[in-house]
Design goal:
two-stranded antiparallel sheet; 5-stranded mixed beta sheet; Hypothetical protein af1432; 443 residues; Hydrophobic Seed Protein; single chain; 4 domains; Beta Polymerase, domain 2; alpha+beta
Length: 443
């Protein structure tokens, strides 16, 4: 911090100890202006009137041009005192002085334009995605000028700043972050959901979890997709024995893990993870010390359709995302051969497998069923008649009148091999085959 700013803070402390409110006006901006001025000067906002100021600081004098209450010069530094008296009915944001006439007079015209101050004009829109943002290479995301004023000229900048922060994985400047939080309700009021989604689609799949987290922390997600934001208040049992977890935190982890392997660029698949548990908001029940969410996938699919229509997704994408949400639980259970075939007949089944794996990673779940299903997934490519013999063990014993024993198992295995070779094609040929084989074996 510049020494002159520290001196100004010292004067504010004198006023505070005397029972009067005081603060340095927009210290970050004044610190920048100090670099360019020949005589260092700092503007201070304070509560006392001119007579009181002159008593507290005998060397002070009333400001001749009456732009400020008074001036005080010490060690070559000029301190200007401005009044913070405001009307009771003033807009809250005008209660805090952020700029003074003397500060604007020290700026070059281009700097004043960048500040986007009301009454001083603002730059014409350039169409550049970085318009309104300072250069943030390897540093932080910052809005130009005074962040609150800059946002007033284009609330879309709030969403764009969050998008860049997520994609480049760099922090947002604290003053810019506060401005975005303060403007959250106006962002939702004045930026169309379709425009927000245009920015959202520019977030990479691998950065989506960061973007959603920022939307939530900025209190924008709560107004845009309240059904997802409400999951932060729903609890569920974790699979790792670590107690309960927030469904929202679990959802964010699923969004994070989904694109990590073979789906790096699958934006829609990653978005499906954002909605896959939204049905838990409507199906959750707490009974006998346990949380249950029966049929949350089916309910979630219907809720997802409502949300996506509200966000102006196209019909094709809505159908895809609802299909993924509706079927995301199928690969969680240990499937039979018939179940594997039924699963593999579903559209987008590779995405459903990736969703299951992301879900397991996010919850530290058991991979027993997943590994079993993956092992037998290729069996769905084999014709069904080649997986099981046309006659089971009991039927073989009935047809051949054999007693239970190793020979029945041998005949069953041989029958399956004959089916694969094409020598046996129907039940009657299977009966003939086992009878002939039994006669030869007995003889």
């Amino acid at each position: 911090m510049h020494k002159v700013i520290n001196d100004a803070i010292g004067l504010c402390k004198i006023l505070l100890r005397s029972g009067y409110d005081a603060y340095v006006i927009n210290a970050p901006l004044q610190e920048q202006l100090l670099i360019k001025t020949q005589q260092p000067a700092v503007d201070i906002a304070c509560e006392p009137d001119v007579p009181t100021l002159l008593k507290l600081f005998p060397k002070a004098r009333a400001e001749p041009e009456q732009r400020a209450l008074a001036e005080l010069e010490e060690d070559g530094v000029l301190f200007r005192f401005y009044s913070i008296d405001i009307a009771e009915a003033v807009h809250p944001e005008l209660s805090l002085l952020r700029i003074t006439p003397t500060m604007t007079s020290l700026m070059d015209p281009q700097k004043r334009l960048q500040l986007r101050l009301t009454g001083l004009g603002s730059p014409a829109p350039s169409g550049d995605a970085y318009d309104g943002l300072e250069n943030f290479k390897n540093d932080a995301i910052r809005l130009e000028g005074l962040p609150d004023e800059t946002l007033r000229h284009d609330y879309m900048l709030a969403i764009r700043a969050l998008r860049f922060a997520a994609n480049y994985n760099i922090p947002i400047d604290p003053n810019t972050w506060l401005a975005i939080i303060r403007a959250a309700s106006r962002v939702l009021d004045y930026v169309a959901p379709s425009d927000i989604m245009d920015e959202w689609r520019k977030v990479s799949a691998e950065s989506l979890y960061r973007f959603v987290r920022l939307l939530y922390d900025a209190h924008i997600l709560q107004g845009l997709i309240p059904e997802v934001a409400a999951l932060s208040r729903i609890r569920q049992q974790g699979n790792d024995g670590g107690g309960e977890e927030s469904v929202f935190e679990h959802t964010l982890n699923c969004v994070k893990y989904y694109p990590e392997e073979n789906f790096h660029y699958d934006w829609l698949g990653t978005m499906s993870m954002l909605f896959h548990d939204v049905g838990k908001l409507y199906t959750g029940e707490f009974f006998d010390g346990q949380w249950t969410f029966y049929q949350h996938h089916r309910v979630g699919s219907k809720v997802t359709r409502k949300i996506l229509r509200r966000l102006h997704f196209n019909t094709e994408d809505i159908d895809l995302l609802c299909h993924l949400v509706n079927n995301h639980m199928r690969f969680h259970f240990m499937l039979t051969d018939k179940g594997i075939r039924r699963f593999k007949s579903l559209d987008e089944y590779p995405r459903l497998i990736a969703m299951t794996k992301a879900d397991l990673l996010a919850s530290n779940g058991s991979y027993t069923s997943f590994n079993h299903n993956m092992k037998y997934l290729d069996r769905a490519e084999t014709p069904e008649q080649m997986l099981e013999p046309l006659l089971n063990g009991n039927e073989i014993m009935t047809e051949t009148r054999l007693a239970p024993g190793p020979l029945v198992g041998v005949i069953r295995k041989t029958l399956l091999q004959a089916q694969i070779a094409g020598d046996v094609t129907d039940r009657q040929s299977a009966i003939d085959f086992v009878n002939n084989y039994a006669k030869k074996s007995v003889c």
